[in-house]
Amino acid sequence: MTILSFRKAHHLLTDLPAAVGREAVPLARALGRRAAEDLQAPHALPERPRAAMDGYVLRAADLPDIFWREAVFSIAGSIQVGEDPGPQLAAGTCRRVVTGAFLPPGGDAVIPQEAVEVQEGGRSLRLKKKVALGENVMLPGEEAIAQGDLLRRGQVLSPRDLLVLSSFGIEEVQVYRPLEVALAVTGSELVAPGHVKGPFQIWESTSFFLEAELSRLGFRLQQTRRVGDDPGSLAETFEDLLTLRPHVLITTGGVSVGPRDWVPQVWRELGADIIVEKVQMKPGKAFLAGRLGETWLFGLSGNPPAALTSFYALVRPALFCLAGGEPSPWRWGLLGEDVHKPPNRPRFIWATAEGGIFHPLQDLPTLEALQKADHLLLLEPRDDPYRQGDAVQAISLEDREDAPLSFPASPVAGRESLHGS
Q1: Which of 143, 182, 323, 363 has the lowest CB atom count within 10 Å?
Q2: Structural contact between residues 32 and 157, judged by C-beta atoms closer than 8 angstroms
Q3: What is the rounded CA–CA span in Å between residue 253 and residue 348?
Q4: Residue 65 has what pLDDT?
Q5: What are the tens digits of pLDDT across the range 86-109?
């Protein structure tokens, strides 16, 4: 199979349809779930004018422009939150209101209670300061406009989303069912922490990252299996995991061209349709993506840093799509220093970001770099070396929210923006 360019592979894997069904859940169980439909506000909030503070509602037209201090208002009752505000406010009268109370027809200004002088045993008042039309009044639509967006399909519901939805009396919401994922860790040389390791064996580590990251992203892990490098054991393990009917099965190891890299062959023998096998990128060239029945398959390198690179650059965006969302956007910024090695194919470098500047962690040992990084830089091949101040793109490692992913024209200038003229 032809090695795909990174962009071609990325395009294929970010154009996948949702693999999960939907369900209606109460708001109390909707946190962290992904909205399965667009939802608009059924009406404005507030629906009619309300008091924005404690005080007295009156008609601004009853205040003379010059002699407002001489105006006397009769206090014609009070209005509490949740009460009917009563009939039309008559000229020269006011009513006491509390924050959030609906205003009566004709009432169009609220004077704070500390800005009035109550007289005649609470039957009338004068103003200590003038109040303008609409002052201290919450108008319809100030909290939400009618038909405004409450949710967009694919959005992960936050605690603030739950507040907004409940403000409209919405008690349940349509969400996608959780994406269910199974893991298979391959490699006869691997030993799980806590077991006895031979002098030439390797501690297995990638599964701990994948299990934690899948949980953080809101996906449901069904099972993790470890298996050695022989075709019979691989086929048996894969078939066992497929009986769980996962939406996605991720493997690590066995996808390169070594004598024990059996994973692609085993998947083909089981009837899988392989759509990506090897990608023009560094690290992470060894990669596999395909489908068997209703299960999507992703094969990562057995090398942990390469596996993480492929996960962030290719698998995570695909999982977002399969879960009903969209991939997180690329971010543009400026290089904080020269890059030592010119890339001869798309190259990813662990980096930190600060104030729009990306600092590549190119001088650190690989594991220390990926531990400290918060972004993954993409450097496209080019003739000129990458210099401090060049515009580059990166993937945020911490993103949960989803937005369309694209490769836009750079919105930032080159070195002059960083160094000045």
Answers
A1: 363
A2: yes
A3: 20
A4: 80
A5: 999 999 999 999 999 999 999 999
- Residues in Cβ contact with 24 at an 8 Å cutoff, skipping those fewer than 6 apart: 172, 173, 174, 175
Residue 372 is inside which H or E element, if any? helix 366-372
User: CA dist 176 to 2, 41, 78, 180, 247, Å?
Assistant: 35, 21, 47, 12, 13
Identify the H or E element spanning 276: strand 273-277
CATH architecture of 331-419: Beta Barrel (2.40)
CATH of 50-138, one of 3.20.20.70, 1.10.510.10, 2.170.190.11, 1.10.630.10: 2.170.190.11
Phi, psi of 405 (to 5 degrees): -100, 135
Distance (Å, rounded) from C-alpha 352 to C-alpha 359?
5
Residues 6+ positions from 260 with CB-CB distance below 8 Å:
188, 229, 254
In terms of DSSP bridges, do strands 22-26 and 55-58 run parallel, antiparallel, or are they unpaired? Answer: unpaired
Burial class (CB in 10 A: 0-12, 13-18, 19+), 327: buried
Nearest to 398 by CA among 365, 379, 376: 376
**In whole angstroms, what is the distance from residue 289 CA to residue 254 CA?**
13
H helices within 1-150, ranges in order?
6-13
Q: Which two tokens stand for residue 241?
A: 């995991």
| Contact between residue 100 and residue 81 where contact means Cβ atoms under 8 Å apart | yes
Q: Which CATH code of 3.30.470.10, 3.40.50.1240, 3.50.50.60, 3.90.105.10 fits the domain covering 22-43+157-176?
A: 3.90.105.10
Segment 178-232, tens digit of pLDDT: 999 999 999 999 998 988 989 999 999 999 999 999 999 999 999 999 999 999 9
The pLDDT tens digits for 48-71 are: 999 999 999 999 999 988 788 889
Q: Residue 33 — φ and ψ, nearest 5°?
A: -85, 165
For residue 78, what are the CA distances in angstroms to 50, 106, 158, 272?
14, 15, 38, 73
- Residue 121's contacts (CB-CB under 8 Å, 6 or more residues apart) are none
Burial of 212 (0-12, 13-18, 19+ CB in 10 A): exposed
Rg, C-alpha atoms of the chain: 31
Name the helix (H) or strand (E) containing 307: helix 304-310
How many angstroms separate the CA atoms of 283 and 305, rounded?
8
Output the six-digit token pair for 23.
Answer: 């369900």
